[in-house]
Design goal:
3 domains; alpha+beta; about 425 residues; Helix Hairpins; 13 strands; five-stranded mixed sheet; Heat Shock Protein 90; rod-shaped; 11 helices
Length: about 425
């Protein structure tokens, strides 16, 4: 509950509602105290002056000694309940009226010193003594009920007013919620959605500014991707020509080094093209159902580090893009080979299904990665310091491409590592990703 309130407290609308409720509660307490304090003055200043003389007339009509038949008739005709006690008489017009002795009476203020007042359960009691007889009148509390009705109407009006204000303020701050959602979408890379802007208020203008910013960011990223794709495509032709010309040259150590460099450039260009296609959504997945365990075995069979890999593969049927999943597995195993040695233990590749997820894990016992560098490993062209200090090759695109492939299949990648203790990479893909 406390955690839920902490989360809701971040909402501006929730806080406004909380402040409204506090204000309403404070107002209710103040009015309630005021109403209670005014009950006694109402009886003394409003009820007593109006009914005291009238009660005297009623007592004269009932007579001394009291005529109970007349008293019963008057009680039926008038808005009073009546009780008479004294000299052998104990009569009440209603069985709910308690005995006079059970009430706590106080003298009325002058000039009504012959009248005694009491209050019990929303009723006002007036006591008058005449020649040994005591007359108790339960006064009709119409004035008080009217006051209560006025207070109830006031509370209802205030509640409705606060409700209207809350709805108006919530509507006024609606663009804030939309802007918050849009900023989260921008942070997640979704630049296609736009905030619906209505009116010309400051918030509407701010929402429009966020829409323009989102559109500009999208345009810039698309231009960057288009430029990168165009350059990569254009590089393929001269690289191919250079490689053909080198193949025609006499065999030498320099020639072989140049050919190796060109192969590395070709691999880099191919990786850039593939990653940009996946990142921009221009390359739809070619899905087909297969046994993921067999797919992993195919990758490892032709891998240069196959002898260093130990596998624990559980057969799992899954609909995936086989070519890209093979590329993902190859990149993960490549990284494990580059950042560990044979003396540090085997590279472990495992596959299993649990909780509607298929998990591929690649574990090495190599140099490991610092905790503060792990969140950046899937960024393009990022390489941790430990990788730059060793002659491991690569340009920091392997895990970036793996992340894109996992995302395209509706999955995710998590990385666990400690310096000197190796690295575990876990790829999770939902079983119902199709």
């Amino acid at each position: 509950m406390w955690h839920f309130l902490q989360i809701k407290w971040q909402s501006l609308v929730f806080r406004l509602l909380f402040y409204f409720l506090i204000s309403l509660l404070a107002l209710a307490v103040v009015l309630g105290i005021s109403f209670t304090k005014r009950l006694k003055p109402h009886v003394q200043n409003e009820i007593l002056p109006n009914v005291e003389r009238y009660i005297e007339y009623l007592i004269e009509d009932i007579g001394l000694p009291p005529d109970l038949a007349t008293a019963e008739r008057l009680a039926e005709e008038l808005p009073f309940e009546l009780r008479i006690e004294g000299q052998g008489i104990d009569w009440s017009s209603s069985p709910t009226i308690r005995a006079i002795g059970s009430h706590d009476f106080r003298p009325a203020p002058p000039p009504y010193s012959d009248v005694y007042l009491s209050h019990h359960r929303r009723a006002e009691y007036l006591l008058i003594e005449k020649q040994g007889y005591r007359y108790l009148f339960v006064v009709d509390s119409g004035f008080r009920r009217g006051s209560e009705r006025r207070h109830g109407a006031l509370f209802l009006f205030l509640g409705l007013l606060l409700l209207v204000l809350y709805i108006a303020i919530r509507r006024m701050f609606k663009p804030v919620e939309a802007m918050s959602r849009q900023v989260r979408r921008i942070g997640a890379g979704d630049l296609d959605q736009q905030i619906e802007v209505a009116g010309k208020s400051e918030l509407a203008l701010l929402a429009g500014g966020i829409n323009r910013m989102s559109a500009q960011i999208k345009s810039m990223l698309e231009s960057k991707s288009a430029l990168l794709l165009a350059i990569s495509h254009e590089l393929r032709s001269p690289i191919t020509r250079m490689r053909v010309n080198l193949e025609l040259m006499d065999t030498s150590e320099i020639q072989q080094k140049l050919i190796d460099d060109l192969r590395e450039m070709e691999s880099l260009v191919a990786t850039i093209l593939e990653s940009e296609k996946l990142n921009s959504g221009h390359a739809p997945l070619n899905l087909s159902r297969c046994d993921l365990a067999l797919l992993i075995q195919e990758v490892l069979q032709d891998h240069p580090c196959a002898e260093r890999v130990a596998t624990r593969l559980t057969p799992v049927e899954l609909e995936v893009d086989q070519m890209r999943i093979k590329l993902l597995i190859k990149n993960l195993v490549d990284n494990a080979c580059h950042y560990s040695s044979e003396d540090e233990g085997p590279i472990e590749v495992s596959l299993h299904a649990a909780d509607r997820m298929v998990k591929v894990e690649v574990l090495d016992h190599g140099i490991g990665i610092a905790a503060d560098e792990i969140p950046r490993l899937t960024e393009p062209f990022y390489r941790p310091d430990s990788a730059r200090q060793r002659d491991t090759g690569g340009y920091g695109l392997g895990l970036y491409l793996c992340q894109l492939i996992a995302d395209a299949h509706g999955g995710q990648i998590s990385i666990e590592s400690k310096p000197g203790s190796g690295t575990r990479v876990i790829v999770s893909i939902p079983l119902d990703n199709s």
